[in-house]
Amino acid sequence: MGSTGEQLGVMKLSDALRKAQGLDLDLVEVAPTANPPVCKIVDFGKFRYDISKQEKDKKAGGTKLKEIKFRVNIDDHDYLTKLRHAEAFFDKGNKVRVQLQFRGREMAHTEFGMQLMDRVKTDLAGMAQVEMEPKLAGRNITMTLSPLPAARRKRRFSVPEQDAEAEAAEADAENGA
Question: Residue 132 is part of a domain; what is its CATH number?
Answer without folding.
Answer: 3.30.110.10
